[in-house]
Amino acid sequence: MASISRRAALKGAVGAAAVGLATGQPGAAAATGQPLPETLSRTKALGAGAHRVSTGAVAPTHLGVSSATGRFRARTAAGWGQWRAIATCPGGRSEQSATAFVRVPEGAVEYELELAAPGAVSELNTVGGRAVGVLSPRADACSVAGRRLSGPYLSRAAWGADESLRFAQDGSERYPAAYFPVQTLTVHHSALELGPDPAADVRAIYYDHTITREFGDIGYHLLIDPAGRVYEGRWSGSDGAPVFGPELVGGVPQMSNAAHVAGFNAGNVGVCLLGDFTSAGPTARARDALVGVLAILSEVCGLDPLGKTDYVNPISGATATVDTISGHRDWMSTECPGNTFHPDLPDIRARVAALLRA
């Protein structure tokens, strides 16, 4: 991981490289050329109680369940798997959505859900649809103001975002971009057991947030997988750079408003680690990538990673006092970013501060 100097990171005019985390100059070796499958979806209405559902000819890879409580298991050729509680990282634009999200194991022929109340289940398949494009080359690092993090970066095009999902049938944008100065940074976990291809999991989260939960786009600005790969989240402009819009206001970058902490989104950058950290924490690589990303964001936005923020929502006027680098549960009632990981945030803040001092 490259060190970031407070003196050097914003030295001189803040140009286009300082506005985004990635300048996106991929080398030929980074090209994947892999086909991009269409995301398949279907929705079922289920009453309260136990349900056994056949997966059909095209088995779902993920389930979106409109309930925050219940449990799930699936049957493969090896038999029934263990029951596990369904979990969620609740997000939203102005109102919180507590829809749970579950990965279905490969080879599942049926699944069981136990729900405490009636709800809808959206079945998604992000790997078996017809090819609708080709995954673009991947940039090989995150960069801001000439400072880079080791490890790959995947733009929306690289992980396979279907940009048409952001638009309604009449052509209007479901969640029009709006830009605000950054006040604070919030850490999440996806509360999702991961499959063999994290990009497919990101595509599932994108569809769930954009269409099923009606956020209009993926709720997070950046996502990080267990190998430390960083994924571009919320669309922020046509310049291809993540998080920030193309314009500076008073020399300060403006973040694209997202949907990760309902009621407290404007001015709040959301970074999500892929995985469920209820009983186990993230990998060392994921932690390192998180520290590096938070350090860059803190540097560019003039934030003190060890400080407190008196947050004021510039749209609604809602207020909250939180750690400048906080966890989702510090804003509202949720387990996110996980009972195991949340106690580690003071160490994350200390590491970010140390990196900035280097």
From TrEMBL:
Organism in which the protein naturally occurs: Saccharothrix coeruleofusca
Domain Peptidoglycan recognition protein family intervals: 151-316
Organism lineage: Bacteria, Bacillati, Actinomycetota, Actinomycetes, Pseudonocardiales
One protein family per Pfam: Amidase_2
GO biological process: peptidoglycan catabolic process
Family annotation (Gene3D superfamilies): Peptidoglycan recognition protein-like
InterPro entries for this protein: Amidase/PGRP_sf, Amidase_domain, PGRP, PGRP_domain_met/bac, TAT_signal
Highest rank taxon of the organism: Bacteria
Entry-linked PANTHER family: PEPTIDOGLYCAN RECOGNITION PROTEIN, PEPTIDOGLYCAN-RECOGNITION PROTEIN LC-RELATED
Gene Ontology molecular-function annotations: N-acetylmuramoyl-L-alanine amidase activity; zinc ion binding
Protein name: Peptidoglycan recognition protein family domain-containing protein
SMART domains per record: PGRP (SM00701)
Family membership noted in the UniProt record: Belongs to the N-acetylmuramoyl-L-alanine amidase 2 family.
